[in-house]
Amino acid sequence: MKIAIMIYSKTGITKELANSLSAKLCSMGNEVELFALETEGAVNPGEMSFQITNLPDLSAYDLLYIGSPVWAFHACPVIIKAIAEVIGIGGKKVIPFVTMHFPYKFMGGSNSLRGISKTLRKRNALPQKGMCAHKVWQDFEVHIADVANALSQMAR
What we know:
Number of domains: 1
CATH topology: Rossmann fold
CATH superfamily: Flavodoxin domain
Structural class: alpha/beta
Number of helices: 4
């Protein structure tokens, strides 16, 4: 299967999860491409005045994963803007994931996943159940591997 992972990561945590997920999906025989979004202009919670400089065309992919950090209890505005502008997302299954520093999903993770899914539905994409990774775990590398493994199983 041809899979795209589109993320925004300011601190590297979301990218760490995306890299782990990509490796797991590749080991299952999938062809995976990771797109780490870059921006021009200031990126702040709730603002959309920045530009995304490397928005991919996702038309050629069978399945999409979209990853975002949680900012101010919402999905990062970069990922919301990317979903609204990206080419080739309509009619595709999309599995969202978010990373956050709080220990409980209700502290922004659930709301972020809902916001991503709502934006995906506006683009006629087919959002699937998503997942949160929490930075507060004592052994975060193991937690990342566990979340990546669970996310990869959703590709079946």
